[in-house]
């Protein structure tokens, strides 16, 4: 079997996001098994392990599943990612941290086993700024952007990037930290009300998202000027605020909604036989689609690995090679029934992070759905690339890692 | 106050110079005046009883003596020196130990450990040698343990050495408390109703202990007690308090016949 | 009669003061130690070491530390998570600042730094008592976490604020970092545990321990018999934090390898350690081990049974885990409020009388 | 006056309001502590559980649906009704009273006369238990709670104060939800104070807190006292759950509001009902003003959590029993 | 003195009970006693004899100390006590004054007294009257009525504890060492009160006392407990004449009262142990 562990969290403070992701991740594998009989004929075995977003449980999950021949880890937690980076490297197992984790892991020269394609936090920050630039015809000189962020490793990630970008584009950056769990954000939103920034960018997770959207609505901040990172762009984040959330924007690097042919397969091979993960009510939601997308990438990488090595029953090391050689293009996605579900990109030895393409989705409170309002646009790799090199080299120095790919 | 430097007790012991002098002590709690302008002294080697009706301020007086209460007015002299503001633990180091009216043993510890705590003022090894244990710490522990075992023998509580004190009956707890106070080898021992809740047989024992301590170690003792029989028999001098005031002071005989004392406290003249 | 103490007479006070006065216990202890040192390293695998044994050993240290403060000295603290963070960050700064410093020193020094911080936060304990103090220690918890999150110097200005432990070795064997062999990090932790437990035992059986317990049982009376409350409480805070700091340093450097303060050393950690101490038994070194074992093993066991054996969905298993662990805690407290250690003691008392009921 | 001054005033007002929200949680703690000397850590989880139950009733969710489905392979989710808010609140209250009975029956009864820390631990065990139980019963996904309490800035106030501060000032911002919370809190506190100070039961509550055994010996039935108190605390938890749930949705994090209530408790005193309110106001204003004046401009923000505790700590150093708590009796 | 022996009804009947603490410590090894209606029964014995334990077993307070009655039965008016919770017991008229005072520290003296009336359904006026009665008995308490009980002196607390029990208008009072820590004058007064209540209101008493002298003066019947067993019982007057009781509990020798100064550590063996 091809073993894909899913380190999920269906409990704890971040369950609201963890559940749909885990559902999507699982459903894709279920579908591939039922429809295609696995990858290249080898069935997939997904092992789910509950981490509760807790690093120690994450380690326990890792240790308990790696012996089963786990091919790739998708821990869905920046904290656990940091923990696992040295471990997976030593054990030779690849890890995919899609849209989260350690951004500088995009530098494949240093991080041999960690991948974070197609986009990372820093891309997100740049995508958001680019979107604002677009709206303002390329000039945001003198405007103010406020960053409302989860006061943790995750939330702090975009700060450096935004600082660089603010220098470059001449906007003013104002930082507002929100402590875990983020139920009480009065100070931050009063400050926003006072300072009247032109745009608010949010890096939130868990209850912080809902409260922020609600508070923004309360102070009648124009929702279309409020842009969340993809982790702040779930249905559950905006639904509680009701109509007031209309117009809120969130970044995304994959398709939203149910309008893809592949979901018919899901319906047929997963839902109808009663094999849907969880309650089966999450299909088509933003975070579900993300889990789904992650699983798709994993399966494609496995296929690539099978091709490269000519073996069906691949090992984690082969899987790693597959991931490093992964190419996703429109043709492939269309064939999978997921046209335009995500950007086209390819991974290389040097670049584990993909191109950093991201789109913007906007919430339609009336229809209760997200609408993609832009194409997958590139981020400012000039700025980000430099930062990635800087950070990853520091890591390499600290840990005596020699550069690869030369 | 008292011109004489020393006097002889009826049974022929010499009582020396004042160990502790209370001078015009006044203690108030909000509106309540617990002690009102009281002076008296306690002399080397004597057993000094303090008696009086409930709420007279006796326990408060002991609390003043060992620094737990700070009187609003008045001075305390200990061994000829005026006492400045001091914390109770410093006073303990000067050599004053006591027992309490409401037993204040360390409930989570065994009898032995409780009595060993009495030795704390004498134990000096540092933290590091404690961690190492072998050597100085163990030697010190053993030396003190020997002394404590003597006290345990003396109080006849060998059988409960390792029992947690919380489980002990009241009377034994009082005895352990006495043991803890004795272990400090105090110059002045303050006992707050050591015999409450005991029957005659046990009171006899306790009296014996108190007299022996006084005799053998020459410890000065101040004692609060409601059992007049005991007080009359073992005290050398008695202070009588009533509503915070001193209404009598003298030998048991003098006190017993004092009309004020009879009215306020004894009710009837006791035999 | 399997378990006996009769006929086991002591001829000197020193003998009477030994840790395991009963020969049977003493042998059991030596055998356990020998097993832990000589057998376990050869049979242990990656899963056991990382999922169970390392956290058990490290939490046992933290539990001993908190037990000194709470169990022996009676000062309830909910700041352990914060103090562990101090240990971890101190270790990180020392490891990155002085790459040549031996890891053993790093860990002891981290404990020392934590001891200082602990004493600082222990100062209010002179006036604040009981639950007020417990809640007040949360100030330390929240403040320290905020501080390590906010001041980039602590995490060497890394972009995310994560710290990761570089590789350090001892006698040529890596103990930290990804290349550490399980047996090596196990033995490393075990040595610390044995030494620290032994030190704790010595500290608590003599004058020091009695001072702490006196303060715990009745601080006023303790002061009146000559115990300096401030000094005593501060030493308790100091020693306790020293242990907790070491545990924090090891948790970060040896076990997790990387940490983010809010996640790894958050308030739930404080509660976890307090749990261990109470479930294990306040005022008992053995209890600290028992409590740590219980709190580490129980969830793993439950998970393995429910998910691994019974094949339940992970979320349901996780919910049941909460229900069961919570229920068990309550049950334990009802059966024996003084913890596993007391349960063990009572069992021994029963055994001693066995086969007679009283 | 400058707009800045009015901004300060606005922060102050909002601090008061936030404080009231904290007080709602703190009240539950106080009640139980006052009545039994138990520091009930489960109060936060009780609020979560109450809110979950309320939403569950409102939406006609089938309890344990997830579990039942997993065991019997059914596909149950909803009863298919939608209960009016008022009725759902009553039902949730009923559940909380039942809960009080069970807690007494299975936990407290067996822990009479134990040390406070043991009772404290038991409540943490209870909190764990309920966390898992609530999730099993109602699922761990996030739920929207709406009982008709209006939310969002109060426009009337905003419009009528806008003239104060010149151009940059929009008028004072107050959340309608907070205004409601204030009204509710005022009613709760007044009635609870009357209850505990002037009724026989109230006196018995305080007696129980001092000495379980003595209370038993004079014939106070610990069982009924505890059921009463835990029921009231359950009610308070429900109120807190409704207010916080309306604000942030109902899900796990709701239980963490307990942590925001602790400094309030400490500052006001564990045993004082008015203390819970006044403590809340001080903490609310303190942390918001600190963040406004110092935290955000100079310390990088997010100072509220620790500052609340530090503020409370500072107060305690001067008054170890909190502002209104009962003096800790130290005698020998 | 009331003659209580034969024909009066037995209120409280303790039948061969055994009590174990913590599942291992056996404290009472078969204690039987009975309290007749309208009588004052004394329970005497040295420290650790098990007096307090007996009283707690009767009032059902053992549970809260992790103690258990493992054998025997306790009946009040023919009903097994074990089935009642302490509160129900108080309602049916049995109240205990606990050893070591156990006042509610944070309540004022008056509030403490009022808690005693918790189980009663009485009008304000009645309660005020009873309060007045207690203050009559203990004038010292009237002065301290507004202070917190935790700050009153040991003797005052003892008064509070007794007064609190009286406030419940009991039928049977279990008094545990009422004289402890009280001034001699007050001891007499308290026993005077006991006698008063007993004679005028027909309240029955079971009192555990160390002060054998006074106890036997006021009681009708006495039991002597040693190491968890009843070693002797009989009408108080008889006990007072028993030579052993005289020597060990009353401190009398053949030549009258011994001086505490003269006792030696040596002790004569008690007859019943030989
Ligand atoms: N800390 C305190 N705060 C307020 N009042 C106090 C305090 N300590 C003692 N008192 C009051 O002072 C008076 C004297 O108390 P004290 O304990 O000294 O009496 P006592 O003579 O020992 O009486 P007893 O024989 O009953 O023990 C009492 O009325 C008591 O209530
Ligand atoms: N909670 C407890 N746990 C264990 N043993 C106990 C407990 N309470 C009492 N005992 C034991 O029971 C025995 C009887 O105690 P009890 O308190 O009944 O004696 P007593 O006759 O009232 O003595 P006193 O006159 O000193 O009050 C004692 O040996 C004591 O050690
Ligand atoms: Mg006194
Ligand atoms: Mg007794």
TrEMBL record, chain B:
InterPro entries registered for this protein in UniProt: AAA+_ATPase, ABC_AA/LPS_Transport, ABC_transporter-like_ATP-bd, BCA_ABC_TP_C, P-loop_NTPase
GO molecular function, one term: ATP binding
Keyword Nucleotide-binding: yes
Keyword field contains Transport: yes
Domain ABC transporter: 20-268
Keywords linked to the UniProt accession: ATP-binding, Nucleotide-binding, Transport
Protein name in the entry: ABC transporter ATP-binding protein
Organism in which the protein naturally occurs: Paramylibacter ulvae
Automatic annotation (TrEMBL), chain C:
Main location: membrane
Keywords: Cell membrane, Membrane, Transmembrane, Transmembrane helix
InterPro entries: ABC_transp_permease, LivM-like
TM regions (residue ranges): 27-44, 50-69, 76-95, 101-123, 130-148, 183-200, 236-259, 271-296, 316-335
Compartmental location: Cell membrane
Entry membrane topology: Multi-pass membrane protein
Statement: the UniProt record of this protein carries the keyword Membrane: yes
Pfam families xrefs: BPD_transp_2
The name this protein goes by in its record: Branched-chain amino acid ABC transporter permease
Automatic annotation (TrEMBL), chain D:
Cited InterPro entries: ABC_transp_permease (IPR001851), BCAA_transport_permease (IPR052157)
Pfam family of the protein (one): BPD_transp_2
Membrane-protein topology: Multi-pass membrane protein
Primary subcellular site in the record, as a coarse category: membrane
Top-level division of the source organism's lineage: Bacteria
Residue ranges that the Swiss-Prot or TrEMBL entry lists as coiled coil: none
Spans traversing the lipid bilayer: 12-33, 45-65, 85-104, 116-134, 179-196, 225-244, 264-285, 292-318
Subcellular location: Cell membrane
Keywords: Amino-acid transport, Cell membrane, Membrane, Transmembrane, Transmembrane helix, Transport
Similarity comment: Belongs to the binding-protein-dependent transport system permease family. LivHM subfamily.
Annotated protein name in UniProt: Branched-chain amino acid ABC transporter permease
Lineage, top ranks: Bacteria, Pseudomonadati, Pseudomonadota, Alphaproteobacteria, Rhodobacterales
TrEMBL record, chain E:
InterPro entries hit by this protein: AAA+_ATPase, ABC_transporter-like_ATP-bd, BCAA_Transport_ATP-bd_LivF, P-loop_NTPase
GO molecular function list: ATP binding; ATP hydrolysis activity; branched-chain amino acid transmembrane transporter activity
Keyword Secreted found: no
Domain of life according to the entry: Bacteria
Gene3D superfamilies, per database record: P-loop containing nucleotide triphosphate hydrolases (3.40.50.300)
Family of the protein in this entry: Belongs to the ABC transporter superfamily.
Stretches assigned to the ABC transporter domain: 12-252
Organism listed in the record: Paramylibacter kogurei
Keywords: Amino-acid transport, ATP-binding, Nucleotide-binding, Transport
Lineage: Bacteria, Pseudomonadati, Pseudomonadota, Alphaproteobacteria, Rhodobacterales
UniProt record, GO biological process: L-amino acid transport
Name used for this protein in its record: ABC transporter ATP-binding protein
CDD domains, per database record: ABC_TM1139_LivF_branched
């Amino acid at each position: 079997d091809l073993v894909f562990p899913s380190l999920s969290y269906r409990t704890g403070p971040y369950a609201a996001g963890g559940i749909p992701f885990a559902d999507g991740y699982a459903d894709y594998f279920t579908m591939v098994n039922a429809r295609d009989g696995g990858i290249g004929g080898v069935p997939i075995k997904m092992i789910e392990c509950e981490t509760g977003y807790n690093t120690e449980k994450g380690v326990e999950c890792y240790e308990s599943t790696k012996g089963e021949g786990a091919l790739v880890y998708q821990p869905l937690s920046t904290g656990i990612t940091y923990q696992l980076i040295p471990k997976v490297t030593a054990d030779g197992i690849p890890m995919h941290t899609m849209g989260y984790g350690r951004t500088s892991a995009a530098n494949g020269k240093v991080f041999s086993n960690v991948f974070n394609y197609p986009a990372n936090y820093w891309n997100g920050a740049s995508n958001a700024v680019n979107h604002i630039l677009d709206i303002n015809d390329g000039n945001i000189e003198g405007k103010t952007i406020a960053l409302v962020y989860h006061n943790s490793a995750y939330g702090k990630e975009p700060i450096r990037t935004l600082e660089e970008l603010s220098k470059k584009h001449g906007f003013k950056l104002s930082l507002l930290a929100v402590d875990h769990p983020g139920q009480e954000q009065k100070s931050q939103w009063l400050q926003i009300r006072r300072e009247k920034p032109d745009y608010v960018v949010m890096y939130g997770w868990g209850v912080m998202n809902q409260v922020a959207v609600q508070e923004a609505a309360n102070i009648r901040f124009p929702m279309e000027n409020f842009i969340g990172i993809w982790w702040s762009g779930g249905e559950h984040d905006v639904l509680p605020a009701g109509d007031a959330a209309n117009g809120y924007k969130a970044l995304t690097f994959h398709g939203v909604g149910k309008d893809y042919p592949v979901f018919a397969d899901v319906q047929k091979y997963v839902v109808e036989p009663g094999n849907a993960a969880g309650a089966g009510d999450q299909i088509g939601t933003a975070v579900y689609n993300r889990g789904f997308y992650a699983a798709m990438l994993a399966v494609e990488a496995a296929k690539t690995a099978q091709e490269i090595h000519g073996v069906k029953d691949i090992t984690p090391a082969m899987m790693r090679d597959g991931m490093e050689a992964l190419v996703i293009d429109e043709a492939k996605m269309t064939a999978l029934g997921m046209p335009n579900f995500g950007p086209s990109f390819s991974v290389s030895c040097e670049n584990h992070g993909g191109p950093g393409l991201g789109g913007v989705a906007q919430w339609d409170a009336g229809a209760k759905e997200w609408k993609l309002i832009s194409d997958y646009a590139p981020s400012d790799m000039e700025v980000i690339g430099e930062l990635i090199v800087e950070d990853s080299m520091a890591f390499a120095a600290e840990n005596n890692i020699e550069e690869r790919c030369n | 106050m008292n011109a004489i430097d020393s006097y002889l007790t009826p049974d022929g012991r010499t009582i020396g110079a004042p160990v502790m002098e209370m001078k015009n002590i006044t203690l108030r709690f909000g509106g309540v005046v617990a002690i009102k302008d009281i002076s008296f002294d306690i002399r080397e080697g004597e057993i000094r009883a303090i008696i009086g009706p409930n709420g007279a301020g006796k326990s408060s007086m002991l609390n003043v003596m060992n620094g737990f209460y700070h009187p609003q007015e008045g001075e305390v002299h200990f061994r000829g020196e005026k006492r400045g503001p001091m914390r109770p633990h410093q006073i303990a180091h000067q050599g004053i130990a006591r027992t309490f009216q409401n037993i204040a043993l360390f409930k989570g510890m065994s009898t032995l450990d409780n009595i060993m705590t009495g030795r704390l003022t004498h134990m000096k090894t540092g933290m590091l040698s404690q961690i190492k244990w072998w050597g100085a710490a163990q030697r010190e522990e053993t030396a003190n343990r020997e002394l404590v075992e003597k006290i345990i023998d003396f109080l006849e509580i060998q059988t409960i050495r390792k029992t947690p004190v919380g489980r002990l009956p009241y009377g034994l707890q009082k005895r352990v408390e006495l043991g803890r106070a004795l272990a400090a080898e105090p110059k002045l021992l303050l006992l707050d109703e050591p015999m409450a809740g005991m029957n005659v047989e046990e009171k006899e024992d306790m009296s014996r202990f108190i007299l022996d301590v006084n005799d053998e170690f020459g410890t000065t003792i101040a004692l609060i007690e409601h059992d007049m029989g005991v007080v009359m028999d073992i005290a050398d001098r008695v202070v009588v308090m009533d509503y915070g005031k001193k209404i009598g002071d003298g030998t048991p005989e003098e006190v017993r016949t004092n009309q004020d004392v009879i009215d306020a406290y004894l009710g009837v003249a006791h035999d | 009669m399997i378990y006996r103490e009769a006929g086991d007479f002591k001829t000197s006070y020193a003998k009477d003061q030994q840790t395991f006065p009963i020969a049977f216990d003493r042998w059991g202890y030596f055998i356990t130690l020998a097993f832990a040192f000589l057998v376990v390293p050869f049979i242990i695998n990656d899963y056991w070491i990382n999922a169970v044994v390392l956290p058990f050993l490290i939490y046992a240290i933290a539990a001993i530390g908190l037990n000194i403060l709470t169990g022996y000295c009676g000062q309830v603290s909910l700041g352990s998570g914060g103090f562990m963070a101090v240990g971890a960050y101190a270790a990180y700064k020392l490891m990155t600042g002085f790459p040549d410093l031996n890891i053993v020193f790093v860990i002891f020094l981290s404990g020392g730094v934590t001891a200082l911080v602990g004493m600082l936060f222990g100062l209010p304990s002179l006036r604040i008592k009981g639950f007020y103090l417990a809640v007040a220690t949360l100030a330390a918890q929240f403040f320290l976490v905020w501080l390590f999150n906010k001041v980039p110097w602590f995490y060497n200005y890394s972009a995310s604020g994560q710290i990761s432990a570089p590789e350090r070795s001892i006698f040529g064997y890596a103990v930290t970092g990804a290349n550490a062999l399980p047996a090596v990090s196990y033995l490393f932790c075990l040595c610390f545990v044995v030494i620290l437990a032994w030190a704790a035992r010595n500290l608590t059986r003599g004058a020091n321990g009695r001072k702490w317990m006196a303060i715990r049982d009745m601080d006023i009376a303790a002061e009146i018999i000559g115990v300096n409350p401030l000094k005593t409480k501060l030493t308790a805070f100091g020693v306790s934090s020293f242990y907790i700091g070491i545990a924090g340093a090891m948790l970060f450097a040896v076990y997790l390898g990387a940490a983010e303060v809010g996640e790894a050393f958050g308030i739930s950690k404080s509660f976890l350690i307090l749990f261990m101490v109470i479930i294990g038994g306040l005022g008992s070194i053995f209890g600290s081990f028992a409590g740590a074992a219980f709190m580490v093993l129980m969830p793993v066991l439950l998970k393995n049974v429910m998910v691994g054996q019974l094949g339940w969905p992970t979320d349901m298993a996780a919910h049941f885990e909460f229900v069961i662990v919570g229920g068990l805690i309550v049950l334990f407290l009802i059966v024996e409020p003084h913890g596993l250690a007391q349960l063990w003691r009572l069992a021994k008392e029963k055994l001693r009388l066995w086969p007679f009921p009283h | 006056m400058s707009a800045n001054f009015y901004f300060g005033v606005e922060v102050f007002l909002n601090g008061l309001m936030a404080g009231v929200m904290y007080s709602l949680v703190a009240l539950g703690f106080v009640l139980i502590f006052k009545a039994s000397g138990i520091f009930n850590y489960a109060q936060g989880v009780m609020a979560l559980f109450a809110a979950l139950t309320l939403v569950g009733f409102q939406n006609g969710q089938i309890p344990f649906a997830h579990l039942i489905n997993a065991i019997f392979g059914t596909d149950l989710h909803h009863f298919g009704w939608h209960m009016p808010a008022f009725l759902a609140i009553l039902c949730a209250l009923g559940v909380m009273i039942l809960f009080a009975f069970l807690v007494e029956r299975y936990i407290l009864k067996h822990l009479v006369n134990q040390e406070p820390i043991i009772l404290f631990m038991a409540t943490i065990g209870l909190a764990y238990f309920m966390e898992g139980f609530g999730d099993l019963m109602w699922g761990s996904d996030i739920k929207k709670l709406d009982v008709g309490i209006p939310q969002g800035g109060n426009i009337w106030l905003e419009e009528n104060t806008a003239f104060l501060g010149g151009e940059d000032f929009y008028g004072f911002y107050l959340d309608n939800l907070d205004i409601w919370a204030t009204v509710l809190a005022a009613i709760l506190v007044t009635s609870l104070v009357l209850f505990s100070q002037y009724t026989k039961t109230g006196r018995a509550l305080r007696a129980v807190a001092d000495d379980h055994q003595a209370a038993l010996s004079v014939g106070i039935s610990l069982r009924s006292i505890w059921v009463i108190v835990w029921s009231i605390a359950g009610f308070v938890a429900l109120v807190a759950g409704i207010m916080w749930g309306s604000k942030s949705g109902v899900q796990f994090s709701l239980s963490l509001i307990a942590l925001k209530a602790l400094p309030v408790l400490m500052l006001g005193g564990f045993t004082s009902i008015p203390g819970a309110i006044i403590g809340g106001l001080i903490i609310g204003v303190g942390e918001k003003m600190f963040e406004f004046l110092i935290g955000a401009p100079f310390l990088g923000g997010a100072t509220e959590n620790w500052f609340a505790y530090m503020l409370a700590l500072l107060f305690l150093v001067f008054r170890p029993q909190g502002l209104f708590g009962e003096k800790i009796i130290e005698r020998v | 003195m009331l003659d209580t022996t034969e024909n009066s009804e037995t209120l409280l009947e303790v039948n061969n009970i055994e009590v174990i603490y913590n599942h291992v410590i056996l404290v009472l090894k078969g204690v039987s006693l009975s309290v007749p209606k309208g009588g004052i029964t004394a329970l005497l014995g040295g420290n650790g004899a098990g007096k307090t334990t007996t009283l707690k077993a009767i009032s059902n307070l053992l549970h809260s100390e992790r103690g258990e009655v493992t054998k025997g039965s306790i009946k009040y008016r023919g009903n097994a006590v074990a089935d009642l919770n302490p509160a129900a017991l108080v309602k049916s008229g049995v109240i205990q004054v606990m050893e070591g005072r156990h006042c509610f520290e944070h309540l004022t003296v008056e509030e403490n007294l009022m808690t005693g009336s918790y189980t009663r359904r009485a009008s304000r006026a009645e309660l005020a009257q009873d309060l007045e009665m207690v203050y009559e008995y203990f004038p010292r308490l009237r002065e301290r009525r507004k202070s917190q009980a935790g700050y009153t002196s040991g003797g005052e607390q003892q008064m509070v504890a007794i007064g609190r029990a009286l406030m419940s208008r009991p039928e049977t009072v279990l008094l545990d060492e009422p004289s402890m820590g009280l001034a001699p004058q007050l001891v007499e007064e308290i026993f005077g009160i006991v006698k008063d209540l007993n004679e005028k209101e027909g309240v029955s008493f079971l009192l555990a006392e160390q002060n054998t002298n006074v106890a036997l003066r006021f009681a009708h019947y006495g039991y002597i407990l040693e190491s968890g067993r009843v070693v002797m019982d009989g009408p108080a007057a008889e006990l007072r004449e028993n030579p052993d009781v005289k020597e060990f509990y009353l401190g009398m020798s053949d030549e009258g009262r011994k001086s505490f100064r003269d006792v030696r550590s040596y002790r004569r063996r008690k007859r019943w142990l030989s």
